[in-house]
Amino acid sequence: MSSLRWLKLNRTGLCYLPEELSALHKLEHLSVSHNNLTTLHGEFSSLPCLRLFINLTDLLYLDLSDNKLESLPPQMRRLVHLQTLLLSNNPLMHAQLRQLPAMTALQTLHLRNTQRTQSNLPTSLDGLTSLADVDLSCNDLSRVPECLYTLSSLRRLNLSTNQISELSLCIDQWTQLETLNLSRNQLTSLPSAICKLTKLKKLYLNSNKLDFDGIPSGIGKLANLEEFMAANNNLELIPESLCRCAKLRKLVLNKNRLVTLPEAVHFLTDVEILDVRENPNLVMPPKPVDRTSEWYNIDFSLQNQLRLAGASPATVAAAAGGSSPKDPMARKMRLRRRKDSAQDDQAKQVLKGMSDVAQEKNKKLEENGDLKYTDLKTRRWDQSLEKPHLNYSEFFTEEVGQLPGVTVWQIENFVPIMVDEAFHGKFYEADCYIVLKTFLDDSGSLNWEIYYWIGQESSLDKKACSAIHAVNLRNFLGAECRSIREEMGDESDEFSQVFDHEISYIEGGTASGFYTVEDIHYVTRLYRVYGKKNIKLEPVPLKAAALDPRFVFLLDHGLEIYIWRGSQATLNGTTKARLFAEKINKNERKGKAEILLLIQTEETPEFWDLLGGQAEEIKANVPDDFKPPRPKLYKVGLGLGYLELPQINYRLSVEHKKRPAADLSPEMRLLQSLLDTKSVYILDCWSDVFIWIGRKSSRLVRAAALKLGQELCSMLHRPKHAMVIRNLEGTECQVFKSKFKNWDDVLKVDYTRNAEAVHQPGGLSGKAEQLMEEWNEDLDGMEGFVLENKKFTRLPEEEFGHFYTQDCYVFLCRYWIPLETEEDEEKKKKKREEGSTEGEEKGEEEEVEEEEKQPEEDFQCVVYFWQGREASNMGWLTFTFSLQKKFENLFPGKLEVVRMTQQQENPKFLSHFKRKFIVHKGKRKARDDNLQPSLYHIRTNGSALCTRCIQINTDSGLLNSEFCFILKVINEGEEPENFFWVGIGAQKPYDGDAEYMNFSRLFRCSNEKGYFAVSEKCSDFCQDDLADDDIYNDLLPTLQSTYAGRPRKLRLVRKGNEPLPFTRCFHAWSVFRKPPA
């Protein structure tokens, strides 16, 4: 069986190709049509590279038609000897068919009913020089694919049953075409270039929209035309030149609007079939009568007539020679007159036609008033679709795609970053890119080609983002082209041509946008600390012999930082070394390191183990005149084909563009302003080589700097503990920062602003009343709902304004939106002031008319969701999945949802209750057998809008002479004497003033933004504003000292142990809510 050459497996019910086929190395003909194939690999998908198409390299014929294939394996490009490929009737919608350009011997290609469009066909088929038969019928093509025009050897082309509306003039390149099928399309005319297909034998144009003008008059040049079918069109006549195709055998013109045919149709002697059925108005031309047999070869010349009449021979001879001689000039003038008269007739016809068209347009203009709605060409269905307006300005600038050229983006952290032109054609193996080619087409308008390149080692997020942003770029430009996927090592010729076939790969790539967890490896190093005002660290060998009693040393062991103080070292140096260690712990170790202070002769065994053992004697080993080498700063540059490493002479003040010369000290002139974010620098400190990488620097320069740093470190004779340290802008290590003067990494603080400047005062009483009145004027209706038994029911009117801490409420408010602006009101006022008494009546009539003409006012619906302090979040979930959806269906596009919690209400919401806002404890319909008296506290926080009456614990110690309290007893009418004190329990000492209300302000101290910040809460603060992750400062004593002249006091309050002077600042302080377990 290994020598089998021909195999046919049609209609066998196959679901995949058997693995045994890969052993038929000599197979030439394989047919598996009319089966159930959904894929070509089936159960042997684990085989490397699909051995089937790797081994069957001699295959000449492959029939996969009438199956269920959705894609083709890329290994099919190895079938370089394949001549016939049949793929008809397969759902290959997402298959790009990139394997076709590699099949250079292909002669027959059938893609009938494979969901082909302009976007899933190869852009070029130049290499298929032998392709002669192409079938693309029953697809969704709107025009002839551009790749077909380059097939000069094409003989048979089937484009029937598509959506083609026009043909290009490029069809004259099909010089070998013999059969062209364009039936069942949307053609209205044929280009004149079709007359150049001199070898065309069969032309099928059935079921189109052709009329007499749509067929070129030069169609008679198709001398080899044998079949012409144009049934089911709009033909009134056919060109007379069609009857000059002498070899025409079949002429089908049924189901048209033919009136007559040219008389020359009778001279088509080879016609076998002439079909003109279903043309009701057709009148066949009369057949010419053959009169040659009626004349019997009679000689009508004058000489013969004279001879028959009996004239003498002399007379006959004179008649023969008496004719006037030919006059060539007279003949030319006669022909010229005929030509001029013909041209005059044509000119008259053209002028008459133009005048008729102009008269018709004028007539339509008079009738309709505007002609643009009748004469404009209708838009295609896909152009009429309304596309959503999307904003891509965050990814692409307005200049993108507006000038011819090439633009490249690199995917980094899910976002495309533009690449400099110097790095075009250089791709990192672990990255993905988007390439845009902008060019001018034949009509002079801009056109685009969009590619997205996938690196071999790239991560999943980069692959997905490159494809997504390539489509975003196409939508941003409004381009009709498709985005083409290019894989590393398998780039198409079109993509390679964009970079002039100069594509190079570079190892590496940016980090994935996903979070990755890596184990951090810390290198143990020993530093000698020197300097007085600004300390500096000098690396020394990791040995006990490197210690000197006159200095302080810092031993960095990752999560353990040792500070060793020599017996002769200063206390100032020790303190600054510890501060330096604190910065390392905070910025580099995330606060997880332990800082240990050691004094000479009091070291721990772990310290000596890190240094390789305890020293016998610690003595001075640093020369008295020691000066560290002066750091050298280099800037890494990329020239034309080479690298540049110029040294920056930072002693020159001219290089410090951001600092004046007075700031440059003679000892240390390295400043942070020397470092440019678009560049990469190398700082050579002899014992360390630092590489500083700017965030906006190019990838190629970064890679070159790392290589140069290694070379620079090994080039000179350095200590064994010398290292190359990489620093990224914004995350520099503290040792690198210490090399610079006054490294500025502290946020600027405005010390000119005090607490009074940032104070947020509450609203004044008059202003609050005005706001309350305005907001209630716009309110058209308000309806309340309360959560009962896991569903919302309507709230009774008598309970309006009463809330319970364990319940959830929903209020639907309908607001009118006024249409009249302030400018219109001012104009009306001016007219009233300027108008006279006589014009007042007219003005009133005009106002009435204007009011009648005004459109209806619009409205907006706002849903307020209120949740008590003790209520669970199930109420919000129930509202989201039930009531909110009903409201959205009732008020589409006009609904706004506002979620609130107790004592954190919206001021506009509070205004609708007109200062009658009561909060009870517990649930709305709860039954309590042991009912007790209830105490309510009425309080206003900063503004009259924020007035609430909240139930508090029945404790007389909570009373205050400055506030109003309400005590509710059970048996009304049976109150004993002094029932207030009896009902409240007993009389206790209570506050006699509430002066703290004038000074209490709540400040939040947080570090969530990466730095310490203090922000003030508004005057209407409550207990729930206190978060466990932050620190809050109630500045009553601090601010009170400013007014009363008393000394400031600062008190620490821990959660759960709050004293009364602290809790009284909050309205209705209670126990903190515990989250559900």
TrEMBL record:
Keyword Repeat: yes
Superkingdom of this protein's organism: Eukaryota
Domain Disease resistance R13L4/SHOC-2-like LRR: residue ranges: 147-251
GO cellular component, one term: nucleus
A molecular function GO annotation: actin filament binding
Bias kind Acidic residues: ranges: 836-855
Domain Gelsolin-like stretches: 419-495, 534-608, 665-732
Pfam family, one: LRR_1
GO biological process: actin filament severing; actin polymerization or depolymerization; barbed-end actin filament capping; myofibril assembly
InterPro entries xrefs: ADF-H/Gelsolin-like_dom_sf, Gelsolin-like_dom, Gelsolin-like_dom_sf, Leu-rich_rpt, Leu-rich_rpt_typical-subtyp, LRR_dom_sf, LRR_R13L4/SHOC2-like, Villin/Gelsolin
Residue segments, region Disordered: 825-855
Keywords: Actin-binding, Leucine-rich repeat, Repeat
PANTHER family: PROTEIN FLIGHTLESS-1 HOMOLOG, VILLIN
Protein name: Protein flightless-1-like protein
